[in-house]
Design a protein that fits this description.
The complex is a heterotrimer. In chain A, 56% of the residues lie in helices and 17% in strands. Chain A is of the alpha+beta class. In chain A, the strands form 2 sheets. In chain A, strands 1, 2, 4, 5, 6, 7, 8, 9, 11 and 12 form a 10-stranded mixed sheet that branches. Chain A has a two-stranded antiparallel sheet with strand order 3-10. The two termini of chain A are 36 Å apart. Chain B has one domain: 3-Layer(aba) Sandwich (Rossmann fold), CATH 3.40.50. In chain B, the strands form 2 sheets. Chain B has a 6-stranded mixed sheet. In chain B, a hairpin with a 2-residue loop joins strand 9 and strand 10. Chain B is globular, with a radius of gyration of 17 Å. By secondary structure, chain C is mainly α. Chain C folds into 2 domains: 166 residues; 149 residues. Chain C is flat. The chains are: A alpha+beta, B alpha/beta, C mainly alpha. Chains A and B meet through helix 1, helix 13, helix 14 and helix 18 of A and helix 1 and helix 2 of B.
Chain lengths: 393, 224, 319
C-alpha cells in the first residue's frame, strides 16, 4: 500500500543534500540529547530513591517543637506499638555529621546489635560481619562502600575520629564495610553502635531521633497515621507514600524536567523557523519541476517531502538518544547532573545506574517529532506547488 | 487523436502587463503522426508543448486526447496521463545532475505501482539499445553531451509512451549529435509513437519524417 | 502543580493541533464558499493550491490525534498521584463529570477525522472535484468539534480539585453505583455477552455481503458492546479477578500491554465497518473497507475471547 520506491527516493534525497540537512539534524539531535539526558538522570535518581524508599519502613514519627524536629521520647514507641495494625515500632538514633574542616556530610546511624529490628534493614548487607561480636566493642563503625572511599581521602581508614556535640573525641575502629544495592545508602552512611550515636549526638537515653513504625497492611496506613497524630499531636508523621509523592513532585516539576521540555519545545520551534524559512534551493526547484513534467503528481511530491522530514526527525531522535545514553551512563553526565544535586552537594559522586524507561523515551519522541512534522507541512506544500513549466525554461 | 481546440495562453508579467503567448491555436494530430512545429525562439513553442502535456492550463480552449479533455483535469489525473502516455524530451535535457543514469531514466516510474524488479526489467533493454549500459550507475553530470542526450531520450521512453513531445531537442547539440538524434527519430518512427517536435532548426523540415509541419510565429500558427 | 511530563507533552501537541487546525479552518471556509474549479481564473488556481495545504494539515492532525488520545489517558494516569483516591487513569478521568464526556468526545473525533480522510481520498479519485466543497464544509464541523474538545478540556481541568477524594475503578464500575459507567454495567453479562457476539456476527455477515447499512449499524453497536464487555467481562479474565473491572490496567506491562492490541483493533475494526455507511450518508458514495473491518474485528474478538477460554481450559471453571 505504501509506495516503497518513494520512501527510497526520499532517503536518497537526504543523502544527496546531506550538508544542507545536516545542520538541522545536528541541532535536533542536540535538543533530543538534552531532553533525554535530563529525563534519564531524573529517572535514574528517582529509581534509586524509590528503591531506597522501598527498603524503608512505612512511617516515621518525628517530634516537632517550635517547628523544628527534636528528639522523641522512646515511650511513644511502646504506645504506638499497641495500635491495631502496627506490626512493630523501632526508635532510631541517627543524624548528620559534618567532618570538621571539610564539606563532607556523613549520615551516622546507630544500630543496636541486640535489637534485631535495627539491624534488620542492614541485615543482608552486613551479614558477612559478625556483629554480635561487636556488641562488646561498642566503639565500632561499619562504613558504606562509598563512605569508606570518602573517608580514605581524608585519612580515615581503620579508625575514625568523631567529635561529639560536647566536643569530646570519639574514636571508632572499623569493623568492616557494608554493601547495599541502593548506592545512595552506601555513599555516605556509617553504622555505629547506638551508644556511640547517642554519645555523638547527645541523645538522651530515653529519647530517640525518630520512631519507625511498620504497618504491613497499606490499607490501614491512613488510619494508623491518624491515630498516632491524635495520640501525639506534637508529632509529624511522614509516610513513604508522602515521600514518594514528594519525590515525584520534585522530579516532575522542580528538577528541570519541566524546564527541559519547555526549553526543548521553544528551541525546536526556533530551529524550525530557521530551517523552514530558508526556502527551496534552485536545484531543488528544478528537480521538482522535472519530476512534475515526467508525471509526478502534487501528492507524490508532498509525500516525498514529508518522508524526508520524517527521516530527518527520526535520525535526529536516534542520534540524540544514543548520545544521551552514552553521556549519562558512560560518563556520568557531568555538568547536567548539577541540575539535580543542587546546593546540597553530595560529596561522593553518584554513579547512575543504566535506566531505560520506555515511557520517557516515548514522551520525548512525542515532544519533538509531531512539532517538526507539523512545521514541515507548509514548506512541503510550497515545494509541491512549484510550477513545472516555469522551472524548465 | 490529439485535438487542440482554440488554445489561448495569456500571462501577466510582474509589472502587471498582459502578454499573449498563444492565440487561437487549433489543429489535430493523428495517431502515430510525426508533427514538426517550426518557429523562432520565443514564439511560444515550449508553452504549446507544455499545454499539450497538461503541465500548463490554457487561458481558454482545451486539449483533447482521444476525445477527452486533459486541460481542466485535477493534477493527479494529469500526472497519471503524463506518466502513462507521454514522454518529454527537453531542450536542456533537464536531467537531475546528482542522480545516476538509471535513476534519471526510471524517474517517471517511481510513483507507479511497478515493483523494482519490473522496473529493472524494463530499463536494461533500454540502456542496451541506447548504449548506456556501461555507465548505468554513473552520475549524469559526469557524462558527455551526447550521452546525456541519450539518457534524456531513454527517460522519455521508459514509460512506454504513445506520445512523445520534444522541445528543441537539438538546440544544444553539434552536428554529430544532430545526426545521432535523427537516427533515433527513425527508431521512434518504427516504434509507432506519435511525435510532436518543436524546433527553430529548418533542417527538420527537409526530412520526410514529418507528416505535418506547422509554423508558429509570435503565438500564431500557420500551415505552410 | 499538575505539570507532569505527560501532561506537558499533551499540551504541546494539542496546542500545535489547535494552531494548525485553525489555519486549516481558515482556508476551508474560503474554499467552501468560493471554490469553483471549472473557472480558469488565477484566483481559482490559488484556491486549488490551498486544497492541498488544507488536506495535508488535516491528515497530519489525524496522526497527532491518534497519538494524543492514548497520551491523554496516560497523562490522566500520571495525575493519579495528585488526586486523592485516584489510583489510576480511571479515577482521574472520573474526577469530574466532564472527564468521561471528554474521553468520548476525543474518541468520536478520531472517527470523525478518519471519515474525513476517507472522503478526501474518494474526492481525489473524482475528475470533477465532486465532493470538495462538501468536504470542506464537513471539516468546519470537525473544527467545531476540536474547539469543543479544548473547551471541555478546560472545564475538566478546572473541575479537578486536588483535595476532593475521588473514586477509583472499584467504585466507578461497580454496577451498584450511579455513575454512567455503573449504570451501563447494570446490564448483566448474560445479556451483554450474547449481544456482543451476536452483533459481531451480524457485522461480519454484513461485511461479507458488503451491505453498508447493516454493517454500519452493527458495527456502531459493536463498538459500544465491545467497550462494555471489555470492562465487565474480558478484563476480569485478563486480571483473573472477578472484581477487577478496569479498562485501563490492560495497558500496563503486567498484562503484556494487551490493551494496545485490543483497543486499536476494536477502534479500527468498527471504523472500517462503519465507514461505508458514513460515506453513504455524507457523500452518497461507497467504499469497500469491509476486508479491513473483518480482519480487525475478528482479531479483537479472538484475542479478547482467548482469555476467558484459556482460563476455563486451565481451571475448569469460569470466574
Amino acid at each position: 500500500m505504501i509506495n516503497t520506491k518513494l520512501l527510497e527516493y526520499a532517503l536518497h534525497s537526504i543523502r544527496r543534500r546531506f550538508w544542507q540537512r545536516g545542520v538541522v539534524v545536528l541541532i535536533f539531535s542536540l535538543l533530543v540529547f538534552l531532553l533525554i539526558s535530563v529525563f534519564s538522570i531524573a529517572g535514574s535518581l528517582r529509581g534509586e530513591l524509590l528503591n531506597n524508599l522501598s527498603s524503608l519502613p512505612e512511617i516515621f514519627v518525628q517530634k516537632i517543637q517550635g517547628g523544628r524536629q527534636v528528639d522523641i521520647p522512646i515511650d511513644h514507641a511502646f504506645e504506638i506499638a499497641s495500635i491495631a495494625g502496627v506490626a512493630e515500632t523501632q526508635p532510631r538514633v541517627w543524624g548528620y555529621y559534618i567532618l570538621p574542616g571539610t564539606d563532607v556530610i556523613l549520615t551516622i546511624i546507630g544500630v543496636d546489635p541486640e535489637l534485631p529490628a535495627t539491624i534488620k534493614k542492614y541485615e543482608q548487607s552486613i551479614a558477612h560481619l559478625d556483629i554480635k561480636d561487636a556488641a562488646s566493642q561498642s566503639s565500632f563503625f561499619i562504613a558504606g562502600e562509598g563512605a569508606a572511599k570518602l573517608l580514605k581521602q581524608y585519612g580515615y581508614e581503620a579508625t575514625l575520629n568523631l567529635y561529639s556535640h560536647q566536643g569530646k573525641q570519639i574514636v571508632l575502629s572499623r569493623l568492616g564495610l557494608f554493601i547495599s544495592d541502593v548506592r545512595m545508602e552506601t555513599n555516605d552512611v556509617i553504622l555505629v553502635s547506638e551508644n556511640s550515636a547517642r554519645e555523638l549526638f547527645g541523645t538522651h537515653p530515653y529519647k530517640a531521633t525518630d520512631i519507625v513504625v511498620r504497618i504491613p497492611n497499606p490499607n490501614e496506613l491512613e488510619t494508623v497515621k491518624q491515630k498516632i497524630q491524635f495520640m501525639f499531636p506534637d508529632t509529624r508523621i511522614v509516610s513513604t507514600s508522602d515521600l514518594k509523592a514528594a519525590y515525584d513532585h520534585i522530579f516532575n516539576y522542580r528538577s528541570g524536567v519541566f524546564l527541559a521540555l519547555l526549553m526543548t519545545t521553544f528551541m525546536s520551534f526556533f530551529t524550525l523557523v530557521i530551517d523552514k524559512g530558508s526556502g527551496i534551493s534552485l536545484d531543488e526547484r528544478r528537480e521538482i519541476g522535472i519530476m512534475k513534467a515526467v508525471g509526478w503528481s502534487i501528492n507524490n511530491i508532498l509525500t516525498i517531502k514529508l518522508y524526508e522530514s520524517l527521516y530527518i526527525v527520526l535520525l535526529s531522535y536516534v542520534t540524540g538518544l544514543l548520545a544521551a545514553y552514552i553521556f549519562v551512563f558512560e560518563f556520568g553526565a557531568p555538568l547536567i547532573i548539577e541540575l539535580f544535586t543542587g546546593a546540597s552537594r553530595l560529596k561522593p559522586e553518584l554513579t547512575l545506574t543504566p535506566y531505560i524507561d520506555v515511557k520517557l523515551l516515548v514522551l520525548s519522541f512525542l515532544a519533538i517529532v509531531p512539532l517538526y512534522i507539523f512545521a514541515s507541512i507548509i514548506p512541503a506544500w510550497r515545494a509541491s506547488m512549484i510550477d513545472a513549466d516555469e522551472v524548465m525554461r | 487523436m490529439i485535438s487542440l481546440k482554440k488554445i489561448n495562453l495569456n500571462v501577466t508579467d510582474r509589472a502587471g502587463r498582459h502578454i499573449m503567448i498563444l492565440k487561437d491555436i487549433e489543429f489535430e494530430i493523428a495517431s502515430k503522426e510525426f508533427v514538426l512545429l517550426l518557429g523562432p525562439s520565443g514564439s511560444g513553442k515550449s508553452s504549446l508543448l507544455s499545454i499539450i502535456a497538461g503541465l500548463v492550463r490554457p487561458t481558454s480552449g482545451r486539449v483533447e486526447i482521444d476525445g477527452k479533455s486533459i486541460s481542466q483535469i485535477p493534477d493527479q489525473f494529469s500526472a497519471a496521463m503524463r506518466r502513462e502516455r507521454i514522454g518529454f524530451i527537453f531542450q536542456k535535457f533537464n536531467l537531475i545532475p546528482d542522480l545516476s543514469v538509471v535513476d534519471n531514466i526510471t524517474l517517471p516510474l517511481y510513483p507507479t505501482d511497478l515493483t523494482r524488479e519490473a522496473i529493472t526489467e524494463r530499463v536494461n533493454p533500454l540502456l542496451a539499445s541506447l548504449e548506456l549500459s556501461d555507465m548505468a550507475d554513473q552520475q549524469v553530470n559526469l557524462l558527455s553531451g551526447g550521452e546525456q542526450q541519450r539518457v534524456a531520450i531513454a527517460r522519455a521512453l521508459i514509460n512506454k509512451p504513445d506520445i512523445i513531445l520534444a522541445d528543441e531537442p537539438t538546440a544544444n547539440l553539434d552536428e554529430d549529435l544532430f545526426q545521432e538524434f535523427l537516427s533515433i527519430l527513425d527508431r521512434l518512427k518504427s516504434l509507432g509513437v506519435t511525435l510532436i517536435l518543436s524546433s527553430h532548426d529548418q533542417r527538420f523540415s527537409e526530412l520526410d519524417l514529418f507528416q505535418s509541419v506547422y509554423h508558429l510565429k509570435k503565438g500564431v500558427l500557420s500551415h505552410p | 502543580m499538575m505539570l507532569t511530563p505527560e501532561f506537558i507533552v499533551l499540551l504541546i501537541i494539542e496546542s500545535v493541533v489547535l494552531l494548525f487546525s485553525t489555519i486549516a479552518a481558515f482556508f476551508a471556509s474560503r474554499l467552501a464558499i468560493q471554490f469553483a474549479p471549472q473557472e480558469p481564473s488565477a484566483h481559482q488556481y490559488k484556491l486549488l493550491s490551498q486544497t492541498y495545504l488544507t488536506s495535508s494539515i488535516i491528515q497530519v492532525i489525524l496522526f497527532a490525534k491518534l497519538a494524543s488520545f492514548p497520551l491523554f489517558i496516560f497523562a490522566a494516569d500520571g495525575l493519579s498521584g495528585f488526586i486523592p483516591g485516584a489510583m489510576c487513569a480511571v479515577g482521574v478521568i472520573n474526577a469530574s463529570s466532564h472527564g468521561p464526556l471528554l474521553l468520548l468526545l476525543k474518541l468520536f473525533m478520531l472517527y470523525f477525522i478518519g471519515s474525513w480522510i476517507v472522503i478526501n481520498k474518494v474526492d481525489g479519485t473524482t475528475i470533477d472535484y465532486r465532493y470538495t466543497i462538501r468536504k470542506y464544509k464537513l471539516y468546519l464541523i470537525i473544527y467545531v468539534g476540536l474547539i469543543l474538545e479544548v473547551i471541555f478540556t478546560g472545564l475538566y481541568l478546572f473541575d479537578l480539585d486536588l483535595d476532593a477524594i475521588v473514586s477509583c475503578c472499584g467504585t466507578v464500575f461497580n454496577p451498584l453505583s450511579s455513575t454512567l459507567g455503573g449504570r451501563l454495567l447494570h446490564i448483566p453479562n448474560t445479556i451483554l455477552l450474547p449481544s456482543f457476539y451476536l452483533t459481531f456476527l451480524i457485522g461480519l455477515y454484513a461485511a461479507f455481503r458488503k451491505e453498508p447499512i447493516v454493517s454500519g449499524i452493527a458495527h456502531s453497536l459493536f463498538l459500544v458492546l465491545g467497550l462494555l464487555t471489555i470492562i465487565s467481562f474480558f478484563s476480569t479474565y485478563v486480571y483473573q479477578l472477578p472484581s477487577h473491572q478496569c479498562p485501563f490496567c490492560l495497558l500496563q506491562k503486567e498484562y503484556l500491554y494487551m490493551g494496545y492490541l485490543l483497543y486499536p483493533a476494536l477502534i479500527a475494526g468498527t471504523f472500517f465497518g462503519m465507514i461505508p455507511l458514513i460515506l453513504k450518508l455524507l457523500i452518497n458514495h461507497t467504499v469497500d473497507s469491509y476486508r479491513l473491518a473483518i480482519i480487525f474485528n475478528s482479531l479483537f474478538v479472538l484475542v479478547a475471547s482467548a482469555y476467558p477460554l484459556f482460563y476455563f481450559l486451565r481451571n475448569g471453571v469460569w470466574l
